[in-house]
């Protein structure tokens, strides 16, 4: 499976962005897809994931109520809607996938990664 993240940019604090992750391959909708982010000098951190066929979703506590994951099966795309953005949300955002149908929060459990898209939130 191949992943391509897009939609990043510069936004003011309190604003919103929607990131997209295009998933290509033989059976893209059978993959669990997650979003991670990495700020300079920090480790990549888990944000949210949706299991294949969207049977379950899991959010990191610090994004609950602000970030929403969704999937468009026809477009083979997973979205991350981000609202109420803060300067500390500034990071490179990555989408990742695994075929096991189980949600993991560890980067090691995702063998496929997109290239990342930069989100900058100004104060």
Tell me briefly what this model is.
By secondary structure, this protein is an all-beta fold. It has no helices and 11 strands.
Assembly category? single chain
Please provide the count of β strands: 11
Helical coverage, percent range: under 10%
Distance between the termini: 37 Å
Globular, elongated, flat, extended or rod-shaped: what is the shape? globular
The ordered string of helix (H) and strand (E) elements is EEEEEEEEEEE
> What is the count of helical runs?
0
Tell me, rounded to a whole number, the average pLDDT: 94
Question: How much of the sequence is in beta strands?
Answer: over 45%
The largest sheet is: 7 strands, mixed
Global structural class: mainly beta
Uncertain runs: none
Gyration radius (Cα, Å) is 13 Å
Structure report:
The chain contains no helices and eleven strands. The chain is mainly beta and 123 residues long. The strands form two sheets. Strands 2, 4, 5, 6, 9, 10 and 11 form a seven-stranded mixed β-sheet that branches. A four-stranded antiparallel β-sheet has the order 1-3-8-7, with no helix packed on it.
Break the fold down into its secondary structure elements and pairings:
Layout (H helix, E strand, L loop, with lengths): L1 E5 L2 E4 L4 E8 L7 E7 L6 E6 L6 E3 L7 E6 L4 E6 L8 E8 L13 E2 L3 E6 L1
Parallel strand pairs: 2-11
Antiparallel strand pairs: 1-3, 3-8, 4-5, 4-9, 5-6, 7-8, 9-10, 9-11
